[in-house]
Amino acid sequence: MKRAIYPGSFDPVTFGHIDIIERSAKMADELVVAILNNSAKNPLFSVKERVSMLEEITNHLPNVEITYFDGLLIDYAKKMEASIIIRGLRAVTDFEYELQIAQTNRIINSHIDTIFLTTSLEYAYLSSTIVKEVASYGGDISNFVPEKLVHRIYQKYTNVQG
Ligand code: ADP
């Protein structure tokens, strides 16, 4: 039984994340999507909201579970009995940092390996930051996130401003 863990902020989840989730769910027996609960990052969406959004868009994938964690990912991966960490690579700019983290994690725990999935070309530009930037100006985000999340994202900015 291979359990993989896909960590991230998912603030909010985008088509880029969904692509990685769908592809890694085919490779692993079980995929744990783990939301980093890091208040220092000052997220737009609470962990509860991010769990709810991720649950909604993965409910067609029976082997995917949505969780959250704080502290060190490598410790959480061990606790969840995952042997694989999944990360997405968009561009060479992601690479250096990801390589360093992956190597550090292997030193801490050599039983857990990191696998990188390269982004699908159509999402190579896409990040949660871009989605927030466009949404904050009321721009069209329907190419970036699933239709059912669009309203929830706009609502954040209405609430923040109002
Ligand atoms: P973090 O705060 O860890 O960067 P993110 O939520 O931004 O978390 O991303 C989680 C993971 O998803 C990272 O491995 C990131 O490289 C990957 N990812 C984000 N956007 C894309 C995308 N458009 N295509 C492929 N992978 C992506």
The Rg value, from CA coordinates, equals 16 Å
| Outline | globular
* Helix percent band: 40-55%
Adjacency order of strands in the biggest sheet = 3-2-1-4-5
Taking pLDDT < 50 over at least 5 consecutive residues as the criterion, the unreliable ranges are: none
By DSSP, the count of extended strands is 5
- Count of discrete alpha- or pi-helical segments spanning 4 or more residues: 6
Distance between the termini: 49 Å
Secondary-structure class: alpha/beta
Largest sheet: 5 strands, parallel
Arithmetic mean pLDDT: 94
List SSEs in N-to-C order. Answer: EHEHEHEHEHH
Q: Give every kind of bound small molecule, once each.
A: adenosine-5'-diphosphate
- Beta fraction: 15-25%
Short description:
With 162 residues, the chain is of the alpha/beta class. Helices cover 45% and strands 19% of the residues.
